Amino acid sequence: MNNGDGKDSEGAAERDHQDQRDEPKDDSDRYRAPALDKGLDILELLSDQRGGLTRAEITKLLGRNASEIYRMLERLVARQYVVRSEGGDRYSLSLKLFALAHRHPPMERLIAYAQPLMHRFANTAEQSCHLAVYDRGNLLVIAQVDGPGTWGIAVRLGSRVGLVDTGSGRTMLAFQAPEQRAHMLAEHTKVKGEVAINHDALEDACERIRAAGFLRKESQQIFGVTDVTFPLLGPSGQAIAALTCPFLKRIDEYVAPSLDDATNLLRETAEALSMFREADGANAVAAT
């Protein structure tokens, strides 16, 4: 009914016209979810920004209005998919997508791909090695290969190792954007026997690791062990895993590969795995 003034008919006609304008032009648009699209647009945009972006930059790059970006960012921060810088003016991806992917087959593919390369390293360098990823404030060992000799250091598969006092942890921290590193440290909880380090000293250590591209130092957990760690880098240049060799030096008459030999072999292995992550990143872990 139009109650004699025709307004209802005009409104219906306008709604019909709007429906025609919004009707999907192809099957890809048939089931659009605009709010979800906005959230995914933000996540995809931030995945390419190592240093994060301000809200104004996100709004401009996505061509959307400030209010809808503000609301969406607040929800992404609340759900811990995005972290806000200490100053509150920049946003970057958290590792939540990465953590979720631990339960997803792409992580299994990484392990399956890594193990043959890790075995090759262990047999050639005659040392053990292990692969660790960030998980809820510390690192989780997801793959471990023993060396071929009588003696070796093995980190048990599934172990949680410290974020701030191990080669794996510091290397993982070193190759993160500042906002992401702050988020990881905020989640950090001490593990048994953890060696404390103040914030400035940790930042200095991270800067040295970034400059060198890897870490090589005496273990803070066991005498006689030199930790050698390289990052596995994703497409954005951030570490998504850390590959570590706890190097043991032979002191008898057997001539084993040297520390430098092992370092070079581990570098080649990490680079091969980083290349795998770049190629497979679209189907594997975001993040980051």
CATH architectural group of the largest domain:
2-Layer Sandwich
Element pattern in H and E = HHHHEEHHEEEHHHEEEH
CATH class category name of the largest domain: Alpha Beta
Portion in strands = 15-25%
Q: Shape from CA axes?
A: elongated
Instruction: Profile the largest sheet.
Output: 6 strands, antiparallel
Give the strand order of the largest sheet, numbering strands 1, 2, ... along the chain.
5-4-3-8-7-6
Q: Can you count the helices?
A: 10
> Radius of gyration, rounded?
25 Å
Extract low-pLDDT stretches.
1-25, 277-288
The strand count comes to: 8
What number of domains? 2
Structural class: alpha+beta
Question: What's the CATH superfamily of the largest domain, by name?
Answer: GAF domain
| Helix content, binned percent | 40-55%
Protein name: IclR family transcriptional regulator
Keywords: DNA-binding, Transcription, Transcription regulation
Description:
The structure is a single chain. The protein is an alpha+beta fold. The protein has two domains: 7-94, Arc Repressor Mutant, subunit A, CATH 1.10.10.10; 98-283, 2-Layer Sandwich (Beta-Lactamase), CATH 3.30.450. The protein has helices spanning 7-22, 34-47, 55-62, 66-78, 96-101, 105-125, 167-174, 178-187, 199-212, 259-280, and strands at residues 82-84, 91-93, 129-135, 138-145, 160-161, 215-218, 225-233, 239-248. A six-stranded antiparallel beta sheet has the order 5-4-3-8-7-6. Helix 2 (34-47) crosses helix 4, helix 3 (55-62) packs across helix 4 and helix 7 (167-174) packs across helix 9 (199-212). The longest helix has 22 residues, at 259-280. The radius of gyration is 25 Å and the shape is elongated. Mean pLDDT is 83; it is low at 1-25 and 277-288. It comes from Paraburkholderia kururiensis. Residues 96-279 form the IclR-ED domain. Residues 1-32 have a biased composition (Basic and acidic residues). It holds the Pfam family IclR_C. Residues 33-95 form the HTH iclR-type domain.
